[in-house]
């Protein structure tokens, strides 16, 4: 609706290019995100990501095991098929967590 209002006014914001200042600020924030943090902050973020990753792996493994057991032993399979789908779709978060952990490790190693 917000976009429709601007289109009706003759201002199509969806096709407007970002200004140079906005692009610069975005690039600067992206590059300096870890450089502005202290070693203690990076280590705490790394430990937090490790804990989240371990917990997510545990929960997803448990969900898959319970779903497979339900598919084999129960007659009504729809619930267990849905839970396997949820587990597989939630596992897409794991590579993102691992990539962020590697970035933090590289930054910590570059400071030593």
Description:
It contains five helices and no strands. With 112 residues, it is mostly helical. The chain has a domain of 62 residues. The N terminus is likely disordered.
Q: Kindly name the structural category.
A: mainly alpha
Radius of gyration, CA atoms, in whole angstroms: 22 Å
Mean pLDDT: 82
List the quaternary state of the chains.
Answer: single chain
Q: How far apart, in Å, are the first and last alpha carbons? A: 51 Å
- How large is the share of residues in beta strands? under 5%
Portion in helices = over 70%
Transmembrane segments: 52-72, 78-99
Keywords: Membrane, Transmembrane, Transmembrane helix
Briefly summarize what is shown.
Helices cover 77% and strands 0% of the residues. It has 112 residues and is mainly α. The chain is elongated, with a radius of gyration of 22 Å.
Set out the fold topology.
Elements: H1 2-8, H2 20-31, H3 39-73, H4 78-90, H5 93-111
Helix pairs in contact: 3-4, 3-5
């Amino acid at each position: 609706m917000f976009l429709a209002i601007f289109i009706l006014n003759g201002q199509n914001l969806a096709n407007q290019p970002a200004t140079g200042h906005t692009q610069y600020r975005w690039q600067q924030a992206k590059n300096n995100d870890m450089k502005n943090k202290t070693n203690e902050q990076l280590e705490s973020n790394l430990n937090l990501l490790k804990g989240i990753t371990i917990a997510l792996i545990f929960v997803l493994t448990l969900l898959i095991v319970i779903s497979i057991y339900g598919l084999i032993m129960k007659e009504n399979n729809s619930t267990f098929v849905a839970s396997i789908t949820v587990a597989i779709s939630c596992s897409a978060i794991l590579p993102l967590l691992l990539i962020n952990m590697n970035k933090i490790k590289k930054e910590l190693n570059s400071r030593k």
